[in-house]
Amino acid sequence: MTAAAPVRPGVSTTTKLLLILVAGAAVAVALGVYANEHTPTEQGPYRLFFSGTIQLKVWFAAAALVLAGVQLLLGVRLYGWINIPRQAPAWLGDAHRLIGTTAFAITLPVAYSCLWALGFQSTNTRVLLHGIFGCAFYGAFVVKVLGVRTKGLPSWVIPIAGGLVFAMLVGLFVTGSVWFFTSSSAPRPLF
Amino acid sequence: MFARIVNAVELLALAGVVVFVIFLFANEPGSAGRTGGPGAAGGPVASGAQLFQASCASCHGANGEGGIGPKLAGGVVITDFPYEPNQIAFVAKGRDGMPAFAGTLSPQELKQVVNYTRTSLGR
After folding, report:
1. Count of C-beta atoms within a 10 Å radius of residue A8
2. CB A69 within 8 A of CB A166
3. How many angstroms separate the CA of residue A118 from the nearest CA in chain B?
4. What global pTM score does this model have?
5. Is A43 in contact with B76 (Cβ distance < 8 A)?
6. Which of the residues A71, A116, A137, B21 could staple to A99 if both were Cys, CB 3.0 to 4.6 A apart?
7. One digit per residue, pLDDT tens: chain B, 123 residues?
């Protein structure tokens, strides 16, 4: 008879969760440090068919928020918290991923412009909150993606991480796009 | 099939993240990214200061502290105009009580005076 091989204990759920949270926090902090240390160029790196970079940013952010809202609804349906449609189609999960990925991709040129051209500012509460929401958004996104890819996590991790991602995006939209749409001192035109 | 498309889009997004990070560091502006700085002698900032005193100070205050026109100092102008080109366009075209300076200042002078408000009035 041979002796049984020693059983190597797997990584505990708490450790996995902690590592994921650390990774998310590291991304958020790294972005904040870059934005703070980098010398803002104050230049508009691109504008596509918009009249300026800031117009591109506010509309891209609006598009990302709409897509994220749709993704949130699909996620709620995936978890069975709503029953519309009554029979969930087989492609629902893939559609959830596709829409979320697209929303995330749309935020990248916006974030690049913020980080590269403007940096981290604290001249008033709005811009300070905008910077914090921006860094936290990507941190929460990392937590969500890693949470999806990691097996054995509690079932509440993904909904909370997804909700946080969406909440940060709403915060970004309110402190950026809503300011642009409503403030008399914001640059014009709208598009 | 749909799942493959989603996988491809995710890979593209990942590539986008890589490009994003590379550009953040590779596209770092050199010293030419900004013209002068607070207290710089001569050059665009000095000219900007003269232009500011001649064209702007009567409304915005000698130090941009505000008067008939809104305050510019202390980073206010950066907050209102995160992008320099937007501020240049605003000064050139004017709006509401702000006169248009496109007829009195050359494009170079517009850039100089705007640069002065952004770099020398306190951030």
Report:
1. 5
2. yes
3. 7
4. 0.74
5. no
6. A71
7. 888 999 999 999 999 999 999 998 887 765 343 443 333 334 444 588 888 887 888 778 888 887 777 888 888 888 888 888 888 888 888 776 677 888 778 888 888 888 888 888 866
Q: Where do the DSSP E strands lie in chain B?
A: none
Q: What angle do CA B16, B24, B120 make, to 5 degrees?
A: 145
> Cβ–Cβ of B79/A127 closer than 8 Å?
yes
Cis peptide before B99 (omega within 30 of 0): no
Cβ-Cβ contacts under 8 Å for A147 (sequence gap 6 or more) = A20, A153, A157, A158, A161
User: Which residues on chain B are in Cβ contact (under 8 Å) with A41?
Assistant: 29, 33-34
Q: Which residues of B touch A (CB under 8 A)?
A: 2-3, 5-6, 9-10, 12-13, 16-17, 20, 23-24, 27-29, 33-34, 70, 74-76, 78-86, 89-90, 95, 118, 123
Q: CA angle, corner A14, sides to A133 and B11, nearest 5?
A: 55
